[in-house]
Amino acid sequence: MSDQYARFNNKPVPVKIPKLYDGRIRQFTDRGGDYHDLNLPHFYDRARNDGTDYVKLEVYDVPKLQRPHFKDAIADAKWRKTSKGNSFGPSWSTHWFRINIRIPSDWKYAEQVLFEWNCGNEGLIYTNEGNAVVGLSGQERREWIIPKDWQLDGKWHQFYIETSCNEMSGNNSPPDPNRYFRLDTADIVFPNLEARALNIDFWIIGDASREFPGDSWQKHKARDVLNRIIDVFDRNNPDESIKKGREIAREYIGSEVDSSQVYKTANKAPVYGIGNCHIDTAWLWPFAETHRKVGRSWATQLNLIERYPEYTFTASQVQQFKWLSEDYPDVFARVKEAVKGGRFIPIGGSWVECDTNMPSGEAMLRQFLLGQRFFQHHFGFRTKTYWLPDTFGYSPQIPQFCRLVGIDRFLTQKLSWNSINSFPHSTFNWVALDGSQVVAHMPPDNTYTAQAHFGDVSRSLRQHKNLDVDQHGMLLFGHGDGGGGPTSEMLEKLRRCRGLSDTVDLLPRVQLGKTVDEFYDDILASTDNGNKLVTWVGELYFEFHRGTYTTQAAIKKGNRVSEVIMHDVEFLATLASLKNKDYKYPTKDIDELWENVCLNQFHDVLPGSGIEMIYEDARAIYQHIAEQGEKLAKEALDALNISTHYIPGHSLGALNTLPWGRSQVIEVPTEKIPREVQASSSFISQANGDKLLVQVQAEGSGVALPTTVSSSIPHATAKEIRKGVFVLENGKLRATIENGVLTSVWDQDAQREIIPKGATGNQFVIFEDQCLSFPAWETELYSLDSRKELSAGTVRISQKGPLRAAVEIENVISEQSRIKTTISLDAYQKPTKESEGAFPDISYLEFSCEVEWHETYKFLKVEFPVDVHSDVATYETSYGAHKRPTHFNTTWEVAKFEVPAHKWADLSDYSYGVSLINDCKYGYAIHGNVMRLSLLRAPKSPDAHADMGSHQFRYALLPHRGGVNPDVVRAAYNFNHPLEIVYLPNSNPADIDGYDSMVIDTVPEPKGDEVLRSFTLDGDKSLIMSAVKRFEDDEDVSRGLLPVRGASGRKSVIIRVYESLGGRARAYLNSKQSIARVFKTNALEDDEEALDILSGVDGDKVPIELRAFEIATFRIELA
Ligand SMILES: [Zn+2]
User: Fold this and answer.
1) Of 312, 387, 532, 537, which is most buried, counting CB atoms within 10 Å of its CB?
2) Ligand 1 centroid to 516 CA: how many Å?
3) Residues near 709 by Cβ (< 8 Å), separated by ≥ 6?
4) Which residues form the Glycoside hydrolase family 38 central domain (predicted)?
5) Rounded Cα gap, residues 685 and 678, in angstroms
6) Burial of 680 (0-12, 13-18, 19+ CB in 10 A)
């Protein structure tokens, strides 16, 4: 029995009723309420001053919404006096402040003096010399620790603040053009650092008291500690009582929370805190503002890196590094230093954090080629992690793209936003169509902009879905989008979280200072190099944002067209650089164009989720790519002696840049065919307005001559067989159109009807499109219930053959909107014995639409019910194709009620199928027997005028025997790569083999396009030679950014080949010029395997074999 224990109890103790004491805890640090003047917040500042004896403000209002750099701004500045309380605007305008401050002499002993600024908008502090110091963003970030010597010398000191009239998230959605921002704070502050530190102690312990489970002693202990801190607090003796309060706090969070020492315990910490700032490259603000967001944010982070030794910051998007190097060379130099020191970590490796539903496979690889080469040039390494926290769904080929560019790790968290099913994994092996894998991690906290709260740390492990095999969670913290990344407050909170874990346990330990690489290394080390991780095969379909495959149609079209332009420019420039020694491969121009293509693929630009301003910029970029691409192609063609303009005596031909034969009818503007050629030509047999139709049969890449039209070729015809019933026919297909829709498509060869009885094809349908949130992004499942067919259209025959038969249909959508569709069928020539295999034996119905679109929250689609039954449909994706169910068995299939695809999608059964090809669309849905293509949307936010106006697009219905096959893949390429008219010099007829036997009126054989057939592929037709370019590091190609790697005096060609349909495939890669050496390389063009060369009569050939869906790159070093 203890002597101390009293026998009688005269002081009854009440139980501390939790909800009352919890309320008291809240009150203690509440900045509002009745008692805020009495409690802790009242003591955060010891003194504050904004009087003109200490702070003088002048402003320069930059005219015309310009964004000058420091030097220009200061040189042009017209300063006027200003003061707190004034407002600055309008939206997007820039205002430079010249600020002079003087620190009162009695603040000398202050540990720190702060300058606090709040104008409600974004800003950046510059030194008098023009060095960027720290970013400001209204609420999130408003303080700068002023230099110590300013504090001590008592003199006036000058600095600048550049402000831009937008918040971190722009200026509302859609933007208000006329916002003004009030300068509320421009003060010098003498802070009470201990009072501020107690606030953070109190905050974290408070979170423990609220969030720890009720059956844990730690929860009750936290409440006790907090109440004791309040008990000792004495507003009449704040310094002493705050000190006492902090001592009590140490019982719960330990004694090391005021420094990085707190992390130096031996305890294993499963939560890896990684600082980041997700800056959308354009979204609710234009690209030009992003330049400055990067400057502000990263300058701020360098500042934090100096102050917090435990801290590492991660930044992605190479474009942003490039902008920083151009706009803020001083900050970029400091970034480079911090990268060297391992504190600032460039990551991601792609040009931007792009959309991955829509970019072509080649564009995806170029994102990395540009990105990794930039990192290598400036930082001396390539990243191992692909970083896409915010992108709206993930192509099934991404793991393969990654492995081809030296990346084996992947990060996202976006699938946590799924609106229907919860994605089942946090850490897993993600497997591509070809079987390639990457380690994928989705931070369990389900955000990339965590505030580093207690709950964020807790969730980073608690919500991990694969704790049985892996116990590592990444905590991605920091304000995004101009909020500038992590704040000192976040780092202070994390120190306390760690101290808390080491003192009372229960909260998972958080660690700082580890890199993203180390995080993944630790996962691999603890899971037998990933062998124990669960597997997810195929696309990471995002169950949200399904409208982004369609919104901003012009941008989608710009993307598709630009990808085609880049293919052609590189193909032609490569061959020109081999043939003509006076021609220089335009590396810099090509890089610049690819950078632009990749920039516009950013995940709020191409998906259509940005404000109107960014689409003005994006359209200008596409215009630039088109003009510059045309110029580069013309220069290359000139070097190849192929003219894009008529020269008397030259022959007209069609340029085929694709590596296979194609037989097509093309429309040529009349002015492209001079009168004398028209008069003497046997190949023109049909005019269409100001265009002439010409049929060409290209046997491969090169220039194909028009085919003479003879009466023996089956012609395309258009007839009105009964009133209002029209038939297009070409000997292979017979299409019947009634009331403006297809009622029958009969395949003559297969003797098969494609449109089910009673159904109608090319049926335009319109849906109400009122989603629950995010109008530009979303279309909801229930929208499908509002399906309405457009009323019957008026039909007339517009082309009667013989090369093309067509009807024109006009549909009214509403009083403001209408569609004009031309359905056409071209002459079809059955392959003869000689031509068999040279051209695919196919014919398709083409639909060319012109739409005037002025709707509000409507979705226009077109449907083709087809007489094919299959439980899966096939969709083209980046360098591959994949299957998705056509049913709604489970909610996982329901979620895919609208899906992304590239140039084609296909519904096939065992014996027969139908493909739906497009020239600029990405949204599809194939369910049951209905194939649906999404055409236009009408969301009003964040762009109030998205998609209003005129649109032109084409699609085609291609029936085929058997399942989906290489003819479909190639037809879709052909559909997107038009044949261009060029002119070749005629050769001397005597040079032509067999001239003697030629009939006199034979078109003279032009000469000079052989070089375009320098590289060909012979073998399995599912292999696609998709890109021909020069080796980046050849002597004559290199820009000097990276060392030359090509053999001196030799030229190398890079050829990309992919297997498009999912089967092992073999071929010969042929080169007309003899080959010195050939390597299989990765997509960064590093040699990996030397291949055999066989010599033949007509040059050299290299046998190649690809796995199903493999993307292979070859470097052919010419002798
Ligand atoms: Zn984003």
Assistant:
1) 387
2) 19
3) 682, 683, 684, 685, 695, 802, 803
4) 543-622
5) 10
6) exposed
Which of these CATH numbers, 2.60.220, 2.60.40, 1.10.3470, 2.30.30, describes 1014-1119?
Answer: 2.60.40
Percent of the chain with pLDDT over 70: 96
| Alpha carbons 280 and 449: distance in angstroms, whole number | 12
Q: Which residue has the tokens 């300013």?
A: 150
Calpha distance 586→574 (Å, rounded): 9
Q: Where are the domains of the chain?
A: 2-30+195-253, 545-640, 642-707+987-1005, 721-825+841-981, 1014-1119
State the DSSP code for 84. Answer: T
**Does 990 have pLDDT greater than 50?**
no
In angstroms, the CA 1031 to CA 1015 distance is 15
**Dist. CA 567–CA 1027, nearest whole Å:** 6
In this prediction, residues 94-109 reach a mean pLDDT of 96
One-letter amino acid at 198 equals L
Q: Which residue has the tokens 């002048």?
A: 58
Task: Give distance in angstroms: CA of 541 to centre of ligand 1.
Answer: 17
- Note the pLDDT tens digit of each residue in 601-637: 999 999 999 999 999 999 999 999 999 999 999 999 9
Beta strands in 236-384 (DSSP E): 271-276, 313-315, 344-346
Q: Is 457 helix (H, G, I), strand (E, B) or coil?
A: helix
Q: Do domains 545-640 and 721-825+841-981 have the same CATH topology?
A: no
> Average of pLDDT values for 917-921?
98
CA–centroid distance, residue 283 to ligand 1 (Å): 8
Distance in Å, CA 603 to ligand 1 centroid: 6
Query: CA 930, CA 928: separation in Å to the nearest integer?
Result: 6
- Do β-strands 1023-1030 and 949-961 pair in parallel, antiparallel, or remain unpaired? unpaired
- Using alpha carbons only, give the angle 530, 535, 541 rounded to the nearest 5 degrees: 130
pLDDT at residue 713, as a whole number: 63
- Using CA atoms, how far apart are residues 548 and 98, in angstroms rounded to an integer? 44
What is the reported pLDDT for 997? Answer: 36
| pLDDT tens per residue, range 309-350 | 999 999 999 999 999 999 999 999 999 999 999 999 999 999
**pLDDT at residue 836 is higher than 80:** no
Whether 390 is catalytic is yes
What architecture is the 545-640 domain classified under in CATH? Up-down Bundle (1.20)
Q: Is 47 helix (H, G, I), strand (E, B) or coil?
A: strand
The per-residue pLDDT for 831 is: 75
Task: Please enumerate in sequence order all residues whose Cβ is within 8 A of that of 545, keeping only pairs 6 or more positions apart, or say none.
Answer: 392, 393, 607, 609, 774, 777, 778
Phi-psi region of 485 (alpha: psi -120 to 50; beta: other; left: phi over 0): left
Residue 1000 pLDDT > 60: no
Distance 484 CA to ligand 1 centre (A): 14
Per-residue pLDDT, averaged over 48-59, amounts to: 97
* CATH superfamily of the 721-825+841-981 domain: Golgi alpha-mannosidase II; domain 4 (2.70.98.30)
The radius of gyration of the chain from alpha carbons, rounded to an integer in Å, stands at 34
Measured CA to CA, the distance from residue 128 to residue 472 in angstroms comes to 45
Neighbours of ion ligand 1 (CB under 5 A): 280, 390
**DSSP H/E element including 1119:** none
Backbone CA torsion sign across 171, 172, 176, 182? negative
* CA triple 904-908-912, angle to 5 deg: 120
More confident residue, 953 or 484: 953
C-alpha distance from residue 505 to each of 228, 254, 256 (Å): 21, 11, 15
**Chain Cα centroid distance, residue 35:** 49
In the chain, % of residues over pLDDT 90: 86
Structure tokens at 696: 């060409």
Report yes or no: 972 and 876 within 8 Å, Cβ to Cβ: yes
Among the listed residues 201, 355, 390, 947, the single catalytic one is: 390
Strand ranges in 968-1049 using DSSP code E only, listed in sequence order: 980-985, 1015-1019, 1023-1030
